[in-house]
Write a structure and sequence with these properties.
Blueprint: H1 10-19, H2 25-35, H3 47-56, E1 62-69, E2 76-82, E3 87-95, E4 98-102, E5 106-108, E6 123-126, H4 129-143, E7 153-156, H5 166-176, E8 189-193, H6 197-204, E9 211-215, H7 221-227, H8 236-250, E10 254-260, H9 268-278, E11 283-289, H10 303-315, E12 320-322, H11 336-344
Parallel strand pairs: 4-7, 7-8, 8-9, 9-10, 10-11, 11-12
Antiparallel strand pairs: 1-2, 2-3, 3-4, 5-6
Helix pairs in contact: 1-2, 4-5, 6-8, 9-10
The chain binds S-adenosyl-L-homocysteine.
Residues 113, 115-116, 157, 161, 192-194, 215, 257, 259, 288, 290-291, 293, 333-334 line the site of S-adenosyl-L-homocysteine.
Length: 345
C-alpha cells in the first residue's frame, strides 16, 4: 500500500511540496482540494506534480463501494473499501441541527464485547489518521451544499476501539478540527470507548475537548467482565475516576452508553445500581436498545421496557435518554454490514 496524503497536517504538506521544489502556494491548492474530498488526480495542480504525488500516495484511500439509504429518515450506511482491499463501514444520520457521521477507527476490533459484530473476526489492523479523515472528507463532499458542511458532527462509534488506536485517532482529531481544513470543532465530536482507563487520562491532557462516551453496559465488575473482556483489566471504579478527571480537565460532561440486553442488565436492581453509581456526577446515560446480532444470540428489550428503565433512572435523579433508532429499515448493528459483505464475498 502507498502512503496516505491525508495523514499529513497542512504544514507537513507544505514541507513536502517545498521538498519537491514547487512553490509554496501549491500546498494550499493541494490541501484545499483534499479537504473538499477530491482525489489527488482530480485536484487542479500541474500534471507533473500529480504524477509525482501519485508515485508515493494513494489517489483515493477510502472509496464508497455501497450505499444503503433509509426510506424512513434518510439515514445512509456506507461500505468503504481501503487501498489494501479491506472494508469498513460508516453511517450518516440526519438531524434538524445537522448531519452526524459515525466513523470507524479500526478494521475489526480486538475488544471482544459479547454483543458486538465489529469484533467477530478480531482486529485486522488500525486505520491511519488519514483513513479516518478520508471517511469524513468523502461523506462531507457528498452532502456539502454550497458553503454549508455536509457533516457537522462526528461520532467515533463505527468499528474499532478508538483508544486502542490512540496516536492515529488523536492525529485525526487534530486534523479534522484544524482551521483551514474541514474544521469540525472537537465539541461536535464524540469519542466512544469501552473504557481503556490510562488512555482516558491521556486524552484528557491533549487539549481536545471532545465529548467522552464510555460503554458501561453493566453495573458490577463481575457482570461487566462477562459482557466486555476489557472489564477484567479496569474496574468501574477506575473508569469513574478517569471520567471525573476528564471532566475536571475539559469541563465536558461525560456520557455512559448502556445497551439494554434482555435478561442481562435491565432489571430494577440494575437501574438502582446505576443510580447509586452515577447520582450527582456530571454525566448522562444514553440507553441503547440492543441491536440483535445473529451470531451473538442476545435479545433486545421492548420500547416499553427501555422507556420504563429510563424513567426509573430519571426518578432516581439521573439524566437519561433512550437513543432514537434511525435507519431501522436498513438496520444492522455496528459491523454487521461488513460481516455480511465478508460472508458473501
Ligand atoms: N469501541 C467503542 C465504540 C463502539 S460502537 C466502544 O466500545 O465504545 C458504539 C456503542 O455501541 C458502544 O457503546 C457499543 O458497546 C455499542 N454496541 C455495539 N454493538 C451493539 C449492539 N449490537 N447493540 C447495541 N449496542 C451496541
Amino acid at each position: 500500500m502507498k502512503s496516505i496524503l491525508q495523514d499529513l497536517k497542512f504544514e507537513e504538506i507544505e514541507n513536502l511540496i517545498l521538498s519537491y521544489g514547487e512553490k509554496k502556494f501549491r500546498a494550499k491548492q493541494l490541501y484545499d482540494g483534499l479537504m473538499k474530498g477530491k482525489k489527488i488526480s482530480e485536484i487542479n495542480i500541474s500534471a507533473d506534480l500529480k504524477a509525482r504525488l501519485l508515485e508515493t500516495f494513494e489517489d483515493e484511500p477510502v472509496k464508497i463501494i455501497k450505499t444503503l439509504t433509509s426510506k424512513l429518515d434518510g439515514t445512509e450506511k456506507y461500505l468503504f473499501s481501503l487501498a489494501d482491499g479491506n472494508v469498513i463501514e460508516g453511517v450518516l444520520m440526519k438531524y434538524k441541527y445537522g448531519n452526524t457521521q459515525c466513523v470507524s477507527t479500526q478494521v475489526g476490533c480486538r475488544m471482544g464485547c459479547k454483543f458486538c459484530a465489529s469484533t467477530l473476526g478480531g482486529l485486522v489492523r488500525n486505520l491511519t489518521s488519514g483513513e479516518i479523515l478520508a471517511q469524513v472528507l468523502t461523506v462531507n463532499a457528498l452532502h456539502a451544499n454550497g458553503k454549508q458542511r455536509g457533516v457537522t458532527n462526528i461520532v467515533l462509534m463505527g468499528s474499532g476501539e478508538p483508544l486502542d488506536n490512540y496516536e492515529n485517532v488523536v492525529s485525526f482529531l487534530k486534523n479534522v478540527s484544524a482551521e483551514g481544513g474541514v474544521n469540525i470543532s472537537p465539541r461536535n465530536i464524540s469519542l466512544s470507548t469501552c473504557g481503556l482507563v490510562p488512555k482516558i487520562y491521556a486524552l484528557a491532557d491533549e487539549g481536545l475537548p471532545v465529548n467522552l462516551t464510555v460503554s458501561l453496559h453493566q453495573t458490577t465488575d463481575g457482570g461487566r467482565a462477562r459482557t466486555m473482556p476489557i472489564a477484567k483489566k479496569y474496574s468501574i471504579d477506575e473508569i469513574l475516576k478517569a471520567c471525573e478527571h476528564y471532566f475536571e480537565k475539559t469541563g465536558r460532561r461525560y456520557i455512559f452508553e448502556y445497551s439494554l440486553i434482555a435478561g442481562e442488565n435491565c432489571a430494577n436492581h440494575d437501574a438502582q445500581n446505576l443510580i447509586r453509581l452515577l447520582k450527582g456526577k456530571p454525566c448522562h446515560v444514553n440507553l441503547i436498545r440492543l441491536n440483535e446480532v445473529e451470531e451473538r444470540g442476545l435479545k433486545s428489550v421492548s420500547d416499553k421496557q427501555a422507556y420504563a428503565f429510563m424513567q426509573t433512572l430519571i426518578d432516581g435523579g439521573l439524566s437519561a435518554s433512550v437513543r432514537r433508532s434511525l435507519g431501522s429499515d436498513i438496520a444492522g448493528a455496528c459491523g454487521q454490514l461488513r460481516v455480511s459483505y465478508l460472508k458473501n464475498s
